[in-house]
Amino acid sequence: MDRVFAEMEFLARSANRGDVLTLVAEAPHDRQALAAETGASQPTLGRILRDFEERDWVRATEQGYTATATGRLVASGLTELSESLAAELHLRGVSEWLPTDSLGFDLGRLGEATITTPTQTRPSAPISRVIELIEAASRVRIFSHAFNEQTLAAVVEWVADGGQFEGVFSAAAIDAVAHETGLRGQLQQLQAADRATIRVIEDAVPLAVTVADDTVSLLLRDDDGRLQAAIDTDDPEVEVWATDRHGRYWESARPLAESDLTIDE
Question: Which domain of life is it from (predicted)?
Fold first, then answer.
C-alpha cells in the first residue's frame, strides 16, 4: 500500500503529470502538441515523459508518445477519481440532504447538475426552479410525498394550457392538500382535467421527484422538512432511473377518488 500511496503522491504533486498521461492515453502526442495543450515547458515535459517511461506508462512511437496498457489503466483511474472528486465538490453543499438510500444511480451522475438553493431574497427559489422546468415541458411525471401550493397552482394552469400530467402522491400528501380548502379545490380541478391523471399510494414515498420531459428534478429537505435545495439534470441514466421508479409507483398506486378529498366535519 505504501507503494500505491507513493505513486498517487507522484501524480498529485503536478497537475501536468495527470494532464499528460490523460492526453497520451487518448491519442499519440508529440512534445509540441503536449506543450500546446498543457502549457508545460519542454524541460518539464521531458522530465514527465522520462518518469512515465521508467514506469512503463508511455512509449515513444513514430506518431508521438502514447500510453501503454498499464498507462491507460492509470489514466482511466485518474480520470474516474478526478470526475468523482469534481462531483463531490459540486454536491458538497447539499450532500447531507441527499436521500442516498433511495437513489438508484451513481451520484457522479449529478456532477454537472443544476443546484438551486433558497436565498434571503428568494426563499422559494428551489420550487421556482421546478416550476420553470414544468412550464417548459410538454409532459410531466411526478412522484412525491408532498404537493406544495406553488407547484399545484402552476400544474393546474400548465395542464389547462395543454400539458400532460401524471402524478403519484403518498396518501399523506393528498390528505394534507384535502385539509386546505383552496388547495383542495385546485386538486379537484386538476383531477377533472382530461390531460391529468393522479394516483395515490398508501406507502410512504421518500422522494420528491419531477420528470419534466427528459429533465429530472429532486427536491431536498432536511430532517425537519425544511426545503434546502432543488437539483435537476438531463443525465440519461438519472432519467432512466426516475422513469422506472415513477412507473413502479404508478403500478402500485390507485386512482385518486373523490372520497380522498372529502373531509368529515
Answer: Archaea
- Distances in Å between the alpha carbon of 22 and those of 38, 85, 99, 147, 173? 11, 16, 34, 47, 50
Q: In terms of Cα–Cα distance, which of 259, 256, 139, 136 is closest to 201?
A: 256
Report which residue type is found at 117: T
Write down the domain spans for the chain.
1-88, 98-260
φ and ψ at 178, to 5 degrees? -60, -25
Task: State whether residue 215 is helix, strand or coil.
Answer: strand
DSSP string covering 141-155, please?
A: EEEES---HHHHHHH
As assigned by CATH, the class of the 1-88 domain is mainly alpha
Closest C-alpha among 82, 80, 111 to residue 95:
111
If pLDDT is split at 50, 70 and 90, which confidence band does 54 have? Answer: very high
Q: What span, in angstroms and rounded, lies between the C-alpha atoms of 79 and 23?
A: 11
Q: Are strands 58-61 and 64-67 parallel, antiparallel or unpaired?
A: antiparallel
pLDDT number for residue 265 = 54
Q: Is 243 helix (H, G, I), strand (E, B) or coil?
A: helix
pLDDT, one tens digit per residue, over 186-240 is: 999 999 999 999 999 998 899 999 999 999 999 999 989 899 999 999 999 999 9
Closest among 232, 242, 230 to 127, alpha carbons compared: 230
Domain covering 98-260, topology: Endonuclease; Chain A (3.30.870)
